[in-house]
Write a structure and sequence with these properties.
This protein is α+β, with helices and mostly antiparallel strands. The protein is built from 9 helices and 7 strands; from the N terminus they run αββαααβααββααββα. It has helices at residues 3-27, 60-87, 93-116, 123-132, 158-165, 172-184, 199-205, 213-219, 248-281, and strands spanning 36-40, 43-46, 143-152, 188-190, 196-198, 222-226, 230-240. A hairpin with a 2-residue loop joins strand 1 (36-40) and strand 2. Helix 5 runs antiparallel to helix 6. The longest helix is centred in the last third of the chain and has 34 residues, at 248-281.
Length: 289
Amino acid sequence: MSLAQSSSNRLATIVLVAVALLMASCSSSSGDGSPVVAKVYDLELHRSDIEGLVPAGLASEDSMTVVQNYVDQWIRQAVILTKARKNVENDFSRELQEYKNNLLVYAYERQIVDQLIDTTVTDSQIEEYYNAHKSEFLLKSSIVKAVYVTAPVKSPAVAKIKKIVLRGTFGDGDVLELEETASRNGFSGYYDASAWMPFVSLQTVIPVTAYNEQLFLRQHRTITLSDDSLFYAARILDYKVTDETSPIEIQRDNIRAIIVNHRKIDILNKLRSDLLAEAEKGGYVKRKL
């Protein structure tokens, strides 16, 4: 199906739903005895149609706004509906019935899925899926593990910050020392050495330009620079570039959702298959073609 066809189908569905809802609000309450709050040609909106529309606890002024907006919207749609009834000869009863049927099927299937679905996903299941589908988790942009500090360029503590960041080896103790030094002097920074972040996010804090990200990250594990007011220091602890496999830490929630969705699909496929087999076994399915 083309994008244009898909958009057209979605628009048609929206129109059908709007018409169905409007027709329901216009016809179901006619003659119910409650006061009319709006009328357009032969269509009436009754007070009973808007009962329950306002959430409990809403201020009276806000409540009036909600109701007024609803009535205004109803009037606009009723005007269009009246004109459409007079000028469009299409009978949408079949489409409306199909939409109603789809809603019923969706509600039933969702009910069954909610009853049967197991949403518990273990770490081992996530790791198993990740290892079997690594090609599905390629990075679209470079990511890094990094800690950084920004400080007033004239601060005496800048030299200490720079010394820590430029150390040959850099471990948890160095991260702690960097954080303590920055905190003691009121500098801002980031010190979660285990978290991945987009490289572009680091660049919004540390104003460094990298025309070739892969080459830059390979050659720069430390960054120190300054401008007229600030000193910037960053230590890149790890990195992955575009088209490399995304780390499992980043993908855990995504994989958990994928596994649960696969379970939903399996439940629905089994439900449909079992119902069809039951109907055929009972002789309720007749094929005449």
